[in-house]
Specification:
With about 325 residues, the protein is of the alpha/beta class. The protein is about 25% helix and about 25% strand. The chain is built from 8 helices and 18 strands. The strands form 6 sheets. Strands 5-1-18 form a 3-stranded mixed sheet, with helices on both faces. It is globular. The structure holds arginine. Arginine binds next to loops. Arginine (ARG) binds next to loops. This is Amidinotransferase.
């Protein structure tokens, strides 16, 4: 019999046919994702059982916020080099900030949520605690955005490395002149998400995200945020598949009308608690929310059967973001 000498003859056809390609099941098939990437990464909505979040501890650079930088007009301490702002006249109480942050992390871990930490960045990255913004997640993986202001540009690389090191697929990256921040992205249905364009999220960022999401069967609807409002997650939060909490003084009417068209009932924050929408759902009708919005919390628990887990988080809000801004879901149950 003729022996094949593979260093002289190409023998491929004889066995690659047997070892043939397996394009299907496709990447996003749940069994395929689990077998190839270790688990069912990503999330189809913002209310499914939360399994894993991305966080980063408050920047040590907040120690550089100086009292003599108070800007009367803006009501905040503002860095002359534009690397930070901190609302009010007082410098950050770092002990309080860190203690409140640690309590928030414990509340998550006590509720069996895995916390994946991105590493500390250089001191100029004073807003890097807000891991909501450098990326978005959908079923199957993450899409890395592109942050708008110079004070945040560069967080993307460390987020990419952290997500990849966790073993999660990266499905795309916003490039070119696109600006897209995760705080302005909201999943409301497995096939529908919203993106608020703003001073931080431009039409080109929308165009790129919409194109990537189309591949995954998700339609991205654009709404324009009013004034200088930076992110859609200040306007509304999903509490259940068909229930959202909104702040009608911030949310574009057009956006609320589209929620109603999707069959989503909206309830409103107490008007004295403008920040109250920025909370994190652990599951359907179960949320973590800062404890200084008692009126809205009462509306949720007494009238809508939402379980509210309060955390003290007020110091962090002076940096311009709350509990939703401080987390990005890497995994929620989806099917
Ligand atoms: N998802 C959010 N709403 N993030 C808030 C980030 C706010 C932060 N002060 C910034 O300017 O970047």
């Amino acid at each position: 019999m003729h022996e094949i000498d593979s260093t002289l003859e190409i023998s491929d056809g004889k066995f690659h046919r047997l070892l043939g390609p397996e394009a299907l099941p496709a990447f996003g098939d749940t069994g395929e994702l689990e077998a190839t990437w270790g688990r069912r990464w990503g999330a189809a909505d913002e209310v499914g059982r939360l399994r894993s979040v991305l966080m980063r501890r408050p920047s040590q650079g907040l120690a550089n916020v100086r009292a003599n930088t108070y800007n009367e007009e803006l009501g905040a301490l503002v860095d002359p080099e534009l690397r930070w702002y901190w609302t009010g006249r007082d410098t950050p109480d770092l002990d309080l900030l860190n203690a409140q942050y640690d309590d928030f992390v414990s509340t998550l871990t006590r509720n069996d949520v895995e916390v994946v930490f991105a590493p500390e960045l250089p001191a100029t990255f004073t807003k890097s605690v807000y891991t909501r913004d450098p990326l978005i997640t959908i079923p199957g993986g993450a899409i890395i955005g592109r942050l708008a202001p110079r004070m945040r540009r560069g967080e993307e690389q460390s987020i990419t490395a952290t997500v990849a090191a966790a073993g999660m697929p990266i499905l795309g990256t916003v490039t070119g002149s696109g600006l897209a921040e995760g705080g302005s992205f909201q999943k409301v249905r497995p096939d529908t998400a919203f993106f608020g364009t703003s001073v931080r999220c431009n039409p080109e960022g929308y165009r790129q995200l919409a194109r990537i999401l189309e591949e995954f069967g998700i339609t991205l609807k654009r709404v324009t945020l009013p004034g200088y409002l930076i992110h859609l997650d200040m306007c509304a939060v999903m509490l259940d598949d068909d229930l959202a909490l909104v702040n009608p003084r911030l949310a574009p009417y057009d956006y609320m009308a589209q929620l109603w068209d999707l069959g989503i009932e909206t309830i409103e924050v107490d008007p004295r608690e403008e920040w109250a929408c920025n909370m994190l759902a652990l599951d359907r009708r179960k949320v973590i929310m800062p404890d200084h919005f008692p009126r809205t919390a009462e509306i949720l628990s007494d009238r809508h059967d939402v379980e509210v887990l309060p955390v003290a988080y007020r110091e962090m809000l002076k940096n311009g973001g709350s509990v939703h801004c401080s987390t990005m879901e890497l995994q929620r149950d989806w099917s």
